[in-house]
């Protein structure tokens, strides 16, 4: 039986491992330990799914808890997908937020169709600025 935890600390190694076992590891800097450690330690909302002592899912967010919650990473081990774990991670994330707070995310290309049936609205107005582009002095 899957157990869920709110803000239970995890290590960068555990985070990297679950990303590798999901499809999200392909789009994250999993070989940059410093970056991965910063991602884990600077998140302010972390919902995890566990099968015994094995981390099988994670929803990692940055939020003000009242208006906006950026769900930066939603990853479920491929062996555990299609069991409702990702949905439950999002439900538990949303339950931690105030009534006006919106979940905001950027969908992985392969997962883009997943979010519509959950009630998300697809908005074409997202912009991304990489560190090495633009805003130069």
Automatic annotation (TrEMBL):
Q: Which InterPro entries match?
A: Acetyltransferase_Butenolide, Acyl_CoA_acyltransferase, GNAT_dom
Q: Does the keyword Transferase apply?
A: yes
Q: Which GO terms describe its molecular function?
A: acyltransferase activity, transferring groups other than amino-acyl groups
> Which UniProt key words apply to this protein?
Transferase
Query: Does this UniProt record's set of keywords contain Transferase?
Result: yes
Q: List, alphabetically, the Pfam families matched.
A: Acetyltransf_10
Ranges for domain N-acetyltransferase come to 6-137
The UniProt entry, under CDD domains, shows: NAT_SF
Put simply, this protein is called GCN5-related N-acetyltransferase
Native organism is Thiothrix nivea (strain ATCC 35100 / DSM 5205 / JP2)
């Amino acid at each position: 039986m899957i157990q869920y935890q709110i803000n239970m600390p995890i290590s960068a190694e555990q985070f990297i491992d679950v990303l590798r076992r999901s499809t999200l590891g392909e789009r994250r800097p999993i070989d940059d330990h410093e970056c991965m450690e910063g991602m884990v330690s600077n998140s302010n909302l972390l919902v995890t799914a566990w099968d015994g002592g094995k981390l099988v899912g994670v929803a990692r967010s940055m939020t003000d808890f009242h208006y906006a919650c950026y769900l930066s990473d939603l990853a479920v081990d491929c062996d555990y997908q299609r069991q409702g774990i990702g949905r439950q991670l999002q439900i538990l994330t949303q339950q931690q937020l105030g009534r006006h707070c919106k979940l905001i995310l950027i969908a992985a290309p392969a997962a883009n169709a997943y979010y519509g049936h959950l009630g998300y609205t697809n908005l074409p107005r997202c912009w991304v600025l990489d560190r090495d582009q633009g805003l130069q002095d």
